[in-house]
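input
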Amino acid sequence: MRPTDHLRELAGEDWIAATTHPFCAELAEGTLDLDKMRWYLAQDYQFIDGFVRLLASAIAHAPSLADSVPAAQFLALVTGPENTYFLRSFEALGMDEAAQTPPPAAPTEGFIALMAEAAASGRYELMLAVLVVAEWVYLSWATPVNPPKEDLPFYFAEWITLHAGEGFEGVVDYLRGQLDAVWATLSDEAKAEVEALFLRAAKLERAFWDASYAA
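output
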């Protein structure tokens, strides 16, 4: 079993809940309440800064240039098309500046803190643990509903296509491959730390979906 499959199995119900959430199902059907989507987008956008810093830290700690290039290419996607998607969606959904910048909810604060902790650790395996959860969860829910229904507004459809398809599959394969490779070099204590961070990230992903659906 791949180490990342082992980690996913450890996450158990949190992983299943995060990747099969009613929020995602209703988004894919186009039936999601728009106030829920507004809340979700405003909260999710607050992750961008911390995510960029975490991904940049992982690039800096990659073992070689070849190991860092896919992450650098993904960083350009996050700061380009994905960032633009948020801005376009805010406008289309009639969200003024106050609506775009609400106080962070508890799961938002928790995941931001987790990303900062991983980035500050200086340890590649801990950075990867959080990155793998963040991206693999999205690939897992988006893939079954891609391509999106033809009549979906772009703020639903593009959120699916940004997180599915060959390009994004490659990102997740790369991140998983990096974590699988480094796993063999870790002590039992270090592996336990990776497991703990992976499980915390999965629990926060589930809590974020729950909070978004309850908004």
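quick obs: Residues 3-214 form a domain with the Heme Oxygenase; Chain A fold (CATH 1.20.910.10).
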